[in-house]
TrEMBL record:
GO terms for cellular component: cytosol. This is Ribosyldihydronicotinamide dehydrogenase [quinone]. It catalyses: 1-(beta-D-ribofuranosyl)-1,4-dihydronicotinamide + a quinone + H(+) = beta-nicotinamide D-riboside + a quinol. Its cofactor is Zn(2+); FAD. Its EC number is 1.10.5.1. Belongs to the NAD(P)H dehydrogenase (quinone) family. Keywords: Cytoplasm, FAD, Flavoprotein, Metal-binding, Oxidoreductase, Phosphoprotein, Zinc. Homodimer. It comes from Pyxicephalus adspersus (African bullfrog). Residues 5-211 form the Flavodoxin-like fold domain. Coiled coil: none annotated. Gene3D superfamilies: 3.40.50.360.
Length: 230
């Protein structure tokens, strides 16, 4: 939709990878819709994944016993987080839709993307208590996981060796995105692109492009346990 803001948080080392192509399709399709598209290319940015006391630029609340959660919450209130965190928070604040684009590593994010989550989604910015889940501080925004796997769709089924992929996505979709208030859209999963034909890879890209044409009308999934694990 014209004027809407899209943030792509992208974690892959190779621009010509399947992940790179999936990211490029978002930029192309959403830009043609009139959206403002911003890409945080974490590897190109050399984004620091380590959550340390260097993330706070002001005085610590308790220098004798460092607590990252407490210190970053207070630093956010005072505007004393380091600039790379503040810049990413500005991007998230402005975004109507956040797309995380990544290859599945060890049933989870690449470390650099997990570090982005750890450092950017601090208490006071992304959530607070009791402001979480439906009342999370990022409510009103949409979020979507788009990722590639090494295993086939059959491997990630209930009967497959890796189990139902919904179990892998629960900590991310519910425990991070839903926790922070996002409306979580169905994931875009590109299964085993390295092991399929070129025709199949093009089909994956085409399906993604077609989905993006109507992404704003998609309803969010229900992230509550009774629905998720039925």
């Amino acid at each position: 939709m014209p004027g809407r803001n899209v943030l792509i948080v992208y974690a892959h080392q190779e621009p010509k990878s399947m992940n790179g192509s999936l990211k490029d399709i978002v930029v192309d399709v959403m830009s043609k819709q009139g959206c403002n598209v911003v890409v945080s290319d974490l590897y190109t940015m050399k984004f620091n994944a380590a959550a340390t006391r260097n993330d706070i630029t002001g005085d610590l609340c308790n220098p004798q016993h460092f607590s990252y959660g407490i210190e970053t919450k207070e630093a956010f209130k005072k505007g004393c987080l380091c600039e790379d965190i503040l810049e990413e928070q500005r991007k998230v604040h402005d975004a109507d839709l956040v797309i995380l684009q990544f290859p599945l590593y060890w049933f989870s994010f690449p470390a650099i993307m997990k570090g982005w989550i750890d450092r950017v989604f601090v208490q006071g910015f992304a959530f607070d208590f009791p402001g979480c889940y439906e009342t999370g501080l990022l409510k009103g925004k949409k979020a979507l996981l788009s990722f590639t796997t090494g295993g086939t769709e059959e491997m990630f089924s209930k009967e497959g060796a890796s189990g139902d992929i919904r179990y892998l996505l629960w900590p991310i979709q519910h425990g991070i995105m839903h926790f922070c208030g996002f409306q979580v859209l169905s994931p875009q999963i590109s299964y085993a692109p390295e092991y399929v034909s070129e025709v199949k890879r093009k089909e994956m890209l085409m399906n993604w492009a077609q989905r993006l044409e109507n992404i704003w009308e998609e309803p969010p999934i229900d992230c509550t346990p009774p629905w998720y694990f039925q």
